[in-house]
Write a structure and sequence with these properties.
Blueprint lengths: L1 E6 L9 H11 L4 E6 L5 H11 L6 E5 L1 H13 L2 E5 L5 H5 L4 E4 L6 E4 L1 H10 L10 E6 L7 H7 L4 E5 L13 H9 L7 E3 L1
Parallel strand pairs: 1-2, 1-3, 3-4, 4-7, 7-8, 8-9
Antiparallel strand pairs: 5-6
């Protein structure tokens, strides 16, 4: 049984469009256990949930935006593959613009995003990837939230697919699910590649 873990982005949930599409796709595959977690907004609390989830290490982790950052943190710790979609690179620099109170749509809890949480994110960030070939990176140049060029630079040596246009939600995501599943479920190493 192969285990796939899905991590949503900031102010999102396991009920997001991408999470639901991903779960539906993997549910149709044999011998796959898929889990989409609902993560707290504070980094330390999110990491506690994740550390419990990886007691049984996943085959691969899929993460979107901030979930892509957390997927990278976990993949570096346990040595599994990861597919990241419009991932946040150095999210402490971006989320510092979004301090304030939020309500989680599934957990139905309120969270206060504070400056100290940016320090927690910065401390989590891997300075470099140990084995970039373990990553599939899906980027759209029209991302209005994150600068895709930061991800191109950070994930050097990974399999990077850069799509012209689109937005932060990653337009047409569902069409990429067969490729994502193939990457996540096949025990193969992939070389450096950037496609447009």
């Amino acid at each position: 049984m192969q285990r796939i873990l899905y991590l949503h982005g900031f102010a999102s949930s396991s009920l997001s469009t991408k999470a639901v599409q991903t779960q539906a796709y993997f549910a149709a595959l044999p011998n796959v256990h898929f889990q989409a977690l609902d993560l707290p907004y504070t980094p330390d609390a999110a990491m506690q949930v994740l550390e419990q989830a990886i007691v049984q290490p996943p085959t691969a982790i899929i993460g979107s935006s901030l979930g892509g950052f957390l997927a990278t943190v976990l993949a570096e710790r346990i040595g599994c593959r990861a597919c990241v979609i419009n991932p946040a690179v150095a999210p402490h620099r971006v989320l510092s613009q979004f301090l304030g109170e939020y309500e989680h749509p599934v957990l139905q809890q309120r969270y206060q995003v504070q400056a100290q949480h940016m320090q927690q994110l910065e401390a989590l960030m891997p300075m470099r990837l140990q084995q970039p070939s373990r990553y599939l990176v899906l980027l759209q140049s029209g991302d209005e939230v994150l600068d895709y060029r930061l991800a191109v630079d950070y994930y050097q040596g990974a399999q990077v697919q850069l799509v012209t246009g689109g937005d932060h939600s990653f337009v047409g995501y569902q069409d990429y699910l067969p490729h994502i599943a193939d990457f996540c479920l096949q025990p193969q190493e992939t070389g450096s590649q950037i496609t447009v």
